[in-house]
Amino acid sequence: MHFVVSPLGSAGDVFPFLGLSLELKDRGHDITFATNAHFEELIVRHGLKFVALGREDDYQATIRNPDLWSPRKAFPHIMRSLRPILRTQYDICAAAGRDSVSLVNVFGFGALLAQEKLGIRAVTVHLQPSVLWSNVDPPTLPGLGGPRWFKSFLYGLGEKLVIDPAVCPFLNSWRAELGLPPVRRITRWWNSPGGVLCMFPDWFAPVQPDWPAGVVQSDFPLWNEGSARPLAEGLVRFLDAGPPPIVFTPGTANIHGRPFFEAAVDACGRIGRRAVFLTQHPEQVPDNLPGSIHFERYAPLDRLLPNAAAFVHHGGIGSSSQGFLAGIPQLLMPLAHDQFDNAERIRRLGTGLGVPAAKFNARTLQAGLQRVLESVDVAAACRGIASRLERRDGLPRSADILLDQVLGA
Predict the structure, then answer these.
(1) Core-most of 5, 30, 261, 313, by most CB within 10 Å?
(2) Cα–Cα distances in Å, from 379 out to 134, 249, 350, 389, 390?
(3) Residue 67 has pLDDT above 90, yes or no
(4) What is the CATH number of the domain that holds 214?
(5) How far apart are CA 371 and CA 93, in angstroms?
(6) Same-domain pairing of 172 and 241
């Protein structure tokens, strides 16, 4: 079978799809991987055919705009960035033909139109539960508080005033060109009638009765670039030189994380803890770090986090799942997107807590770290969750479910 795999987003979006693609390739399937040129070297190095959707400078322009991290401005900003490449995604799917299957995330509008117009099957793959609205168990989103009925009302208002206006004008104009009727309520439409696969476990977020019919669920993919290689020598020396550090990262696409790291330097100094700072954008890291803090551009989390005392991050689903795997407390600084919902689910599981970006500073970070590091209940909850992920079989299970239950291959 030929799969056109086309996730649009940052490394947190691309890595799970790459892991699933490699699993499918190992089973004899053909893969065409279509995403931004920023990821070309990575995809080609893993032996997959690559087609660029957008240029490197498009990616950089998207992540350098602070609107990416605004709860109200992020979605319109992302859609403005993606509009020019969605037609290319449609063309790639069309060229692959009706014998192919497209695997996309919530931004796979080109693939969904190719399915509707040309009969080329598309499967939506969700990495996080927040993109599936439920009136029964609403996800936690910024600005949506109160009882369930009120959350549903506010969400509907947000769809009408923010989400649909960012998508429907250009999408429905395109649909008219194709002879297709207009659509609305985009967050419901982006679930493909060709199948929806959720790559997160039921103990994190069970399937809700008002989710799309036919939703199937597997487990966290837990794929990291570089997991087969040892950690950098300098990082290993630092880890060996003292007690387990706290690992800090604001996310691979976040270039506005200097206040995050400044608060981390201050808080770790106050509580006498060592730290590892991870970011591919070193200009964010304060100058003259103390010897108790080590900076690294990248380290595979599944290799680093088992050596850590705690994990402080932005709340992306990939980082959150790696924290679960390592069995360590997590403290999240949610900014936008799925991060508030992930933080709330981590709080409910008892494995950590969230401090919203507006309240994130050295004082609140210190208090939060002391709370999660000193709690025997948090430690026990972390061990219990880690035991559920010991098999690390999320990718094989996802491939099995995709092929057997969704596609019936």
Answers:
(1) 313
(2) 31, 21, 9, 16, 17
(3) no
(4) 3.40.50.2000
(5) 50
(6) no
In a domain, 260, yes or no: yes
Same domain for 256 and 176? no
User: What are the pLDDT digits (tens) for 11-46?
Assistant: 999 999 999 999 999 999 999 999 999 999 999 999
Neighbours of 136 (CB within 10 A): 10
Domain residue limits at 310: 233-388
Mean pLDDT, all residues of the chain: 95
CA neighbor of 221 nearest in space, from 85, 293, 125, 131: 125
Q: Are the beta carbons of 407 and 101 closer than 8 angstroms?
A: yes
Dump the DSSP string for 157-221: HHIIIIIHHHHHHHHHHHHHHTT------HHHHTS-TT-EEE-S-TTTSPPPTTSPTT-EE----
Is 270 among the domain residues?
yes
Cβ count within 10 A of residue 101: 27
| Count: domains in the chain | 2
* Percent of the chain clearing pLDDT 70 (strictly above): 100
- Answer yes or no: is pLDDT of 193 > 80: yes
Both structure tokens of 156: 């509907």
φ/ψ of residue 406, rounded to 5: -80, -50
> Is 364 a domain residue?
yes
Q: How far apart are CA 321 and CA 395, in angstroms?
A: 13
Greatest mean pLDDT among 44-53, 62-71, 143-152, 332-341 lies in 44-53
